[in-house]
Amino acid sequence: METLKRWMKDWKYPTSLLCIYGFFSTVKPLEPFLIPFLTGPDKNLTIEQVTNQIFPVWTYSYLTALVPVFLLTDWLRYKPVAVFQCLALFSTTAMLLWCNGVLEMQAMQFTYGVVTSCDVAYFTYLYSMVELKHYLKATSYCRTAQLLGYTVGSVLGQILVSLELMSYNNILVFTLVLTGIALIGSILLPMPKTSMFFHKTRSARGETDGEGHVGIEEDLQSNGQKVGVEMDGAKQQQQISEVSTECDNTSAKSFKKGGGCCDVLLRLWRDFLQCFSSRTLLIWSVWWALSTCGYNQTVNYVQSLWEYVEPSSNFTVYNGGVEAFSNLFGAGAAYGIGFSSADWSRWGELALGVLSALEGGALFAMVFSGNIWVCYCGYIIFKSLYMLLITIAMFQIAAGLNLERYALVFGANTFCALVLQTIITSVVVDSGGLGVDIVTQFTIYAAYFSIIALIFFLSGLYTAMCRKPETETLRENLEEKFKAEDDSQIIIGTNF
Q: b/e string for 423-461 if b means 16 or more Cβ within 10 A?
């Protein structure tokens, strides 16, 4: 019993539950066959209706819901939003099962947009419950669990469809059961005591709550040990007190004034400016926004390209197997990067440029080959590379931030990606805009990733050849600042 209690207080307990929740919520056997399902006898929709009228609603819904959900996520302290996401996902699957027609499917896409807007709660909850030193492994575990869920769902869907073991409708009923398991996992998640803006009640003395973060003192001591800083006890205690006072000064004043919505928005703006003043964080965030925009567009409409290259009416589709392989390779890359010791501050931009070029090349191959198997292989390469890079980006950003600002940066990055995606969707995809054909769409996406690759490759060459490695993470800042003569003054000026 004591062992169980200790394990429940350890970072592995919430991480394990989050992995269970992430796994079962992403097992979606029908998702690789969504286009054949909607255009088949079950829904009897045309490919033009699905591509140009129904799917664009998801982008608009996602963008509309993201900011309100972000604020609610912080106010409700993450867990309730995770539970709500499962309920909304359950509703989406039910609507897909029992509703028909363009308007009903547009409503389904709107609900699914709300589901994806709640994704911000998944990793922000994780970082609110896990210490900085466990960020990389916890991120890789949770990302791997999600990708394994997608993989299992894709394999299961391919088996059920190819062997005709279940109809599309029965597969959706099975998905409802899996979503119910994910709902149970989300309910069992421990509730964080604090959040970024609305619930900043942590003691400056560095006490733990058994569920959330350790306090400032413990964080500072552990980071000081990592960088080899030697300080006498009395001096360290004095500095910790000064850091705590400075860090909470703005928050304390705000809460004394009442802590209203205007107060929260002002703090959001201040933290936004401060977070993005870091060049390293800005570079990774720009890549995140640009690449996520292109990734979402590619994944949303790739089945339409496959349907164009090889219609499902005269070909045994292997969409599920392709999704499974892409997610499996992505999961392997995400898990393996947790054990990497590469100097991403120096070589990260160059890696972004080179791998983004490979992504663009894979998309060009899909467009111009006219062969379904080349399309499948190109998609596997594209998705695996994105999953590798986004895992690195998430860790780099989270490790370089104060523990209470990751949600702001993640939300801002996602919002920027959605703004770009909305512009592309409304101009290129939507029937109210140009409404171009699927081949032209993917030609645009391939060119888009090529431009991203060129930008980051040139920036990476400059960083690798002309700049010294960046030292902007918290631990490196501590190492530099603790060596200065006037320790207390410099620590007071450091923002944790």
A: ebbeebbbeeeebeebbebbbbbbebbbebbebbbebbe
